[in-house]
Amino acid sequence: MKLEDACTVFIDGDWIESKDQSNIGIRLIQTGNIGIGEYLEKDNKAKYVSEDTFENLKCTEVFPGDILISRLPEPVGRACIIPYKDERMITAVDCTICRPNEEKVLKEYLCYFMQSTAYYNQLVNSLAGTTRKRISRKNLGKIEIRIPNKSIQTKVITNLDLVTKLIRLKKEELSIYNDLVKSRFIEIFGDPVINDKGWPKDKLKNHADVIVGYPFASSQYTADGLPIVGGYNLMQGFVQWENSKFWPSPEGYEQYLLKDKDIVIAMDRPWVGSGFKIAIIEKADLPAILIQRTACIRCKDIPTQFLYRLLDSAWFADHCQITGSLVPHISNKDILNYEIIVPPLDLQNQFADFVALTDKSKLAVQQSIETLQMLKAKLMQDYFG
C-alpha cells in the first residue's frame, strides 16, 4: 500500500514568516523539533503564532496521533508522533502532516516503519538525480508500506516498544554517569569561574598545545585510509567514526595526525543543543587525522580528563561568547587564552582516576546499547524488509 492511501490526511505544513511568530499562542512545530521515530517532546524554547495569525493564514492544525514528517533531506524523512493535547499546534512548511487511517494502519506501526531501512531507501531513491532541497509530498506519498493485519501490527509495536524502552533506559543510565562526573568535579574543585576554593589560575596555552586541522581537498578523499576528524563527525562526547571521510596517506601531513588522549573540538558552530561538539581520541581510534576548522588540544602537564571537563562546559562557552553569537565560532586565540584553574596535580589525577573508573562502567552500558540497537535493527529488518 502507498503511504498516501494509508492516511486520511496527508498535507504539507504552512509558511509562517518570522514576523508572524510570537512567544504565546498556538505552538509552531518545525523540523528541528522532529526526532527519528520518536514522540514529539515538549520544548521550553518553542515558537508560537497568535490566534489572529492562525485565523488569517488559515493554518493547518495538528492533533494527537498525527505523524509529522520532515521534508528536509538531512537526515532523510525523520518523523514523530504528536502524543498530547495540552496546547494547540500547527506545523511549518518543511513538515508534512500524516494522519493515519487507523482502520488500516496503527500510528505507532507507521512511525516505526519510518525508522526502517525500507523507508529510508525508498526516500533516498526518490531524491536520486535531483538538486531539490526538500523531499516532495508527492514522493512521500508514493512510499510503499507493507501493512499486515492489526493483530500482527500490535505485536510488532509491542516488541519494538520493549527494545526502544530498554535503549532509552540505558541512555538515561549513561546520562546519570555523566552527571556524576560533573558533580564530582564541583565537589573536588568548586566552581572554576567563581574559584571559591582559591586555586591558582593560568592561561591554557601554558599547559596544552593547540593544533588546527588542515584544509584537505574533498576531491581527493578516498574510500578508505586515514579517517578524517572534523565538525561533520564530531558529536557531543564522541566521534561518529562510521560517518568518516578518508585521506589516502599521512605523508606530508604528519603534524595533523592525532594522538592518544588528544581533545578534539569543532571550531565552527561548535555548540549543539546544550553542549560542545568535543571528544577525547583513544588509542583504539588511531590512526586519524585532523581537518580544518577543528582544533586538537594536547595536554602537556595536566590530565586530559581534567582539562576536558573545563572545556566541555558553559564556562568555556561564556569565555568564547558562543551561546550569544549568531554564527558561533571558536578561534585558536579563544582556546589559548582560556584561563583555567590549576589545582594541585594530585587532585587533578584523583579526578582523572575517578573518571577512568566511571568510563569503565559507561563502556559496559554503551555496549549494552549497541547490542540492543543491533537487536532492534534485526527486528526492523524482519518486520519491514
What is this structure's SSE topology?
Elements: E1 7-12, E2 21-22, E3 26-29, E4 38-39, E5 47-49, H1 51-57, E6 61-62, E7 67-70, E8 79-81, E9 89-91, E10 95-100, H2 107-113, H3 117-127, H4 137-141, H5 150-189, E11 201-203, E12 208-212, E13 226-229, E14 245-247, E15 263-266, E16 271-272, E17 275-276, E18 278-280, E19 289-290, E20 294-299, H6 304-311, H7 314-320, H8 332-336, E21 339-341, H9 345-384
Parallel strand pairs: 3-9, 4-8, 13-19
Antiparallel strand pairs: 1-10, 2-5, 3-5, 6-9, 7-8, 7-10, 11-21, 12-20, 13-14, 15-18, 15-20, 16-17
Helix pairs in contact: 5-9
- The portion of residues assigned to helices is 25-40%
Mean pLDDT across the residues is 87
What is the subunit arrangement here? single chain
Biggest sheet character: 5 strands, mixed
What is the number of helical segments per DSSP (H or I, 4+ residues)? 9
Adjacency order of strands in the biggest sheet: 1-10-7-8-4
Strand content: 15-25%
Q: What would the principal axes of the Cα set say about the shape? A: globular
Instruction: Kindly report the CATH topology of the largest domain.
Output: Adenine-n6-DNA-methyltransferase TaqI, Chain A, domain 2
Structural class: alpha+beta
* Estimated radius of gyration: 24 Å
What would CATH call the homologous superfamily of the largest domain?
DNA methylase specificity domains
